[in-house]
Every structure is written in structure tokens, then in C-alpha cells.
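Marked as duplicate of an earlier ticket. Keeping the data here for the record.
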Amino acid sequence: MRVGLVGTGRIGESHAAAIARRPEVDELVLADVDAGRAREVAGRVGAHAAGSIEALLHPAAVDALVVTAATSAHAELILAGVRAGTPVFCEKPVAPTVAETVEVLREVDKREALVHIGFMRRFDAGYARARRALADGELGTLHRVHAVTCDAAPPPAGYVPTSGGIFRDCHVHDFDILRWVTGAEVVEVHAYGANRGAPYFAEAGDVDTTAAVLRLSDGTLATVQGSRYNGGGYDVRMELAGTAGTIAVGLDERAPVRSAEPGVSFPSQSPWQEFWSRFRPAYEAEIAAFLGAVRDGGPSPCTVADALEAVLVADAADRSRREGRPVLVEEVRP
């Protein structure tokens, strides 16, 4: 299989290294707006560098296309791949706006194309185990869910104005995995935000700390909390509580929490500090699933439609924060 990858920044290089190790990949070809960087990364991971991005977008140029470029280029690259008849994997988000996401969705559906959007938590062993526990009745009737996403350190000031805001940039993962694990849709969101750190978040119209209550279609209540400043480390967890039991995702030996109880040493190892080390097995499983779908002609493990639903929840949360009221997801649906 010949795979093309566009975008050789930090996450692009990590994906490239994972793809290069896949046994079904005979050749990996990288491209970037910075051709020199593409060559450097290709040398490090054992791939080849294309002369241009366009060289990977022609029909039959590659068997699969992986998009890890800047968010502003996602929609254009997905559509180019789809129109060339090439299966596409793209890191989230599909596009900077809901309108562009809908445009991509219509084209993908019209062509019945294979497009996989990168929400890697669906491939994390802990989230998969929680989903099975709920589906198999181990938890009884689900009553509440709590999700946390906290960065160990904030992103650079220059990143924030183009990030889409904390709900789109960070919590969109919580919203997607909440739908995937529970099988329910988010109906309403009441979100709050605060700025407790550097002023550049507020200057960009964003916040660095969040709390939200979500009402699901089956009546379950969920809470989501987040921060750009978590001194304990990179903290991503989920707790599901039902009438027959409670299960927690991310509560391992590297969880960035400490017990206040006497004699308790758990967790005993150094805490996670960033997303790739925490979710590396999930990222690798995600790429393996995409390449398997390409090989076998299977369905997308995470569709553009799935991505749209998560973004709509994020937009509802952001509107709720700005307007100081609960917002129905249907209010932001085009």
C-alpha cells in the first residue's frame, strides 16, 4: 500500500513514524508547504518526500491519504482526496466552521467516500472497556458521567486565536467520546468559563478553565471540566456511574492525581505530561483501523457526520458560555 501524508508538524511526524512501521505499508510519501521539513521528517522516519502537496492529490497517486496539516487546510485536502477517489484520514477538525464541515459531509456522502476523522479516544483501551461495560449491563442504568480534559501547560499565545477555542480544540474530544461510549446524543449544554492564567486567552475571546453540564437524549446528566493549566500533569479521564456499578477511564498508575487518604500510594508512577505519550497506543490503533478499512473496503471508524455532531456540541457550549444560558444543540445546527 502506498500512503501519502500531508503536514509534517509535530503530530504529522508522529503519525508518519507510526504509519512507516505498519506492515501493510510498502511506501510512505510525505508532503508539506515547507518542502524542506518534509524531506527532514522523511529522512527520520524512513519515508520519501514528494515534490509538492499536489503530487499526492492526483487520482491513483496514493492508495490512502493522511491529512495532518493546519486546520485551515483540512477541508480542501479532504475534498481533493475524495474527488481523486482516494480514502482519507484527517485529524480533527474537518474544517474551521460548521458550514464548511457540512459542505465536506455532503461531498463525502454523494461520492460514498471513505473518510476517517481522527478522534483517537475511540481507540483507547480504557474507553473501549467502559463502552463494553455499559453495553453489557455491568453498570446497570446509567445515571451520570463525568469527563475531564486538562493540559499540563498552556499552548503558545500564537496558537489560541486560531484554535477555535477550548471547547472546539480540547473538549470536542470529550463530546465525541461521550456520544461513542454512551450511545446517546447531547441535547443541551450549560457551560461556564474562566480565565485564571495568562491574559492572551481572554484577548482571543477564549477561556482557560471550563465547567459544563450536558443533558443527554436518554436523560443522563454529564459534566465536563477542563483547564489549560493543570500542574499535576496531562489529565484525561471519564467516570460512568450506574445503578449497578461505576467505572473510570484514565485512572492508571500515571494518572495526575494524588490521594489525600493516609497510607494510599496510588498512583505510584510519574504523571502523564502530554497527549502523544498518553494516547500513543490509541493513535497507532486508529491508523491501523483506517488502513484496514482501506484494504478491506470497510466503513469509516469515525465519519464526517460523527465529527459534525461533536463540533455542534462544542459550538453550543461556546454559545452557552458567551450568552450565560443553557443552549440546545438544535439551536446551532444549520
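See parent ticket for discussion. The mean pLDDT is 97.
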